[in-house]
Design goal:
This protein has a six-stranded mixed β-sheet, covered by helices on one side. Strands 4-7-9-10-11-12 form a six-stranded mixed β-sheet, with helices on both faces. The protein has a two-stranded antiparallel ribbon with strand order 13-14. The chain has one domain: tt1808, chain A (Alpha-Beta Complex). The protein is α+β, with helices and mostly antiparallel strands. Helices cover 24% and strands 30% of the residues.
Length: 202
């Protein structure tokens, strides 16, 4: 989801929370700057549903929560807040704390768009991987069969990278005892073709 700078003057985090509480639009917050979150495509929305549904079925009975798009993530307290496409949290502190926010996700999923792919790969990932609770970060393309998965290596600061581009692939989150076929992620998704300039049509 695209984020566009909205105001030049720096805000306090308290002012940001007030804007989010009273406004209809969602914004990212980074060191005093706020960025309005843009619109999404139908593919983007359906891919989120295709991932969120099996996650809820598997983890809600275990006392976990699955959130999408409208719940804020505290990436760095007082400094960086954003709205991932999907978050899975099993931490009681998230259930007992701020009703608008998650701080201890075990899984974050971002559905990539034309405008956010670079930001999700670089800027957000740079900050997401500092979250001690996070075990998996998944990036899903809506324009091709393409899923990227980062898995935290226990006891180290390193992450294992996997890339899936076949409908026959199955993505396994072994630490969570959960797997999802790539074909399920892209169920009923019409991949938009590229035009002669190599750009995505539509």
């Amino acid at each position: 989801m695209v984020a566009t700078a909205l105001k030049k003057e720096l805000l306090t985090v308290e002012e940001y929370f007030e804007i989010e509480k009273d406004g209809d639009a969602r914004h990212e917050f980074y060191h005093g700057e706020i960025f309005v979150m843009g619109n999404t495509t139908k593919n983007h929305n359906e891919i989120i549903d295709n991932i969120k549904t099996p996650l809820r079925k598997a983890f809600v009975p275990k006392g976990c929560k699955v959130y999408s798009e409208s719940i804020r993530l505290q990436v760095a307290k007082g400094k960086f807040y954003t709205y991932p496409d999907i978050m899975l949290t099993c931490d009681k502190r998230d259930q007992e704390g701020n009703e608008y926010m998650v701080a201890y996700p075990v899984l974050i999923v971002e559905v990539l768009s034309k405008t956010t792919s670079g930001r999700d790969h670089d800027f957000k990932w740079k900050h997401y991987k500092k979250l001690p609770s996070l075990q998996y970060y998944m990036m899903v393309s809506q324009y091709s069969i393409s899923v990227e998965l980062f898995t935290r290596i226990e006891g180290k600061k390193f992450w294992h990278y996997q890339y899936f581009e076949s409908m026959d692939d199955v993505i396994e989150l072994k630490k969570l005892g959960f797997s999802i076929p790539v074909k399920s992620i892209y169920e009923n998704i019409k991949i938009l073709p590229e035009n002669e300039n190599g750009e995505i049509a539509g």
